[in-house]
Amino acid sequence: MTKIFSIILSTALSAVLFNVSAQPKKPVTHIGTPTNGPVQGLSGKAVYAKYCVSCHQADGLGVQKMNPPLSKTSWIEGDKSRIIKVVLNGLSATEIDDETYNNVMASFDFLSDRDIANVLTYVRSSFGNKASAVLPEEVSKLRTKKK
């Protein structure tokens, strides 16, 4: 049963990674429709639902040994720049809070600075987290220093 689950999950992950790699590489300046002023990006929850939920799950708990949880980890609640860099650059197998996760996370650098800030703010304030917001300017600053 576990092997079947792993095969299904791997197939789903491959489909997600294939779709992500087909996205444009230049950041989009805005997505969405204007609401009382300048154009806003997608809400953090909408970005999460579109790009993150398949690996990190609806409850943010991830998949053991494959995809890390987004709930109360030092990577989410700690220094913002680390998690911004993960979204911009992707991540391969790594250890987070003494647990090793083996799946590769693709880069989401095609998302706008606002959408990255929105999704990270959503994650840092959801799933039991109580960390500060991420600003688009913080994403922009790290995007220019990327790699």
From TrEMBL:
Please provide the record's keywords in A-Z order: Heme, Iron, Metal-binding
Whether Heme counts among this entry's keywords is yes
GO MF, one annotated term: metal ion binding
Asked if Amino-acid biosynthesis is a keyword of the record, the answer is no
For this protein, the record's Gene3D superfamilies field holds:
Cytochrome c-like domain (1.10.760.10)
The entry's protein name is Cytochrome c
Q: Which organism is it from?
A: Mucilaginibacter ginkgonis
